[in-house]
Amino acid sequence: MVKTMRKWLSTAAAISLATASACPLSASAAEYLLGPQDKVRLKVYEWRASRDVIFEWTALNDTFTVGADGTLFLPFVGQIRAEGTAPADLARAIGDRLMQRMGLGREPDVAAEIAQYRPFYIVGNVKQPGEFPYRPELTVLQALGIAGGLPIREDDLSRLEREVISGQGDVGLLALNNVSLLARKARLQAELAGNDNITFPSELTDRASNETIALAMDQERKIFAIRKDSLATQLRSLHELKDFLQQELVSLEQQLTFHDKQIELIQKELAGVSNLVQKGLAVAPRELSLEGTVAQMQSERLAAETSMLRVRQEMSKTDIEILNLSNQHSSEIAESLRETQQQLNEVTSKSNTAVQLLHETQVTAPALLALRQNAAKAKPIFTIVRPKDGGTEELAALETTLIEPGDTVKVEIPLPQSGLDSLPAADASIEVDTTAVRNTN
């Protein structure tokens, strides 16, 4: 029994030593009070004399996160308050709760350590604002280093140069798109009106010496000519088909006239032969032959009438196709014209926005950057926003001020107020004509 107790004491000492080495808390951090988002690692052991063993509470030997309500929900323990409690006090409360709930003769040995502190936040004039893990004895200056430090002016200049290049490219593309849409709109209007030539707007004709605009108008003229020839070819084919059917109809009408004359002559001959047969002056086969000839001619006449009906039907279909082709062509042009106008409106709106952004980048932003460079010697102002009693309080801070978990550090670099009045107004030289290209040569 004595040996077992010594073994247990040695084990407990080793556990305590491991716990102490794993927890990096300093003397001042030992009184750290837990709060939401803190992660607590528990180690719970119990000496069971009846079995001469050290029992490990494996369900509790884990890492738990303090909830938003400031409590922990633990197996066998249930919900227990952690917010505002030191880790050592939390360990004693857990041991006491286990002894009461599980009917133990003594409290189990519970060790509580902070596995991960709740984060702190840094915002304002830093390279990488956001949320970062806290560590004990963290100062404002160290937090600034974690966030990447203060912005470097060279980075701002490079970014502005990239934005200017990108903005100029956007404005140029929108202007080119606008030229293309204006030329297309003029071509569609000419097609819809049935004109022989395209009448381009003055926004394009006044700058016809511009290579880009001249190319856009030339392309639309070629498209206009191709589409006009294509429509004319289709209509010509349909009209030629109608003329052919008309000629076929005339031919069939002549055939009917010819058949009628033949039938009339044969019927006269048949009447004479029938009289001779009745008088015994002609043979009956001759009469039968003429009757067969009449029947055949009548059949041929009926076939000609059927062909005439078919030809008239084909002529009606051809008229419908001519009408449908013209209507479909006009409908397609009207729809394309509507879409082109909608795209023109969108391009105009985007162009206005792009010009404003380009002006902001080329004029206002560099002016502000110059003010920032003039204020390079100004020291940053640090403010800590700390949660307190369900709200927050703002505290002025220095570089050496210690930060607490959950704090938000605001970094501000003051600009000289007197220089703000000297910001340049809009420069007319940056204005871009969104209805045509001025600077594409």
Radius of gyration: 50 Å
Count all strands and give the number.
Answer: 11
| Helical percentage | 55-70%
Inertia-based shape: elongated
Q: Please state the average pLDDT score.
A: 79
* Beta-strand percentage range: 5-15%
* DSSP helical segment count: 7
Q: How many strands, which pairing sense, and closed or not: the largest β-sheet?
A: 5 strands, mixed
| Alpha carbon gap, first and last residue | 101 Å
The chain-level structural class is alpha+beta
Order of helices and strands: HEEEEEHEEEHHHHHEEE
Low-confidence stretches: 1-30, 418-441
Biggest sheet: strands side by side, in what order? 8-7-11-9-10
Brief sketch in words of this structure:
This protein has 441 residues and is of the alpha+beta class. It has helices spanning 2-22, 87-102, 140-146, 153-193, 202-205, 211-279, 284-374; strands spanning 39-48, 53-56, 63-65, 71-74, 78-81, 109-116, 120-124, 130-132, 381-388, 391-397, 408-412.
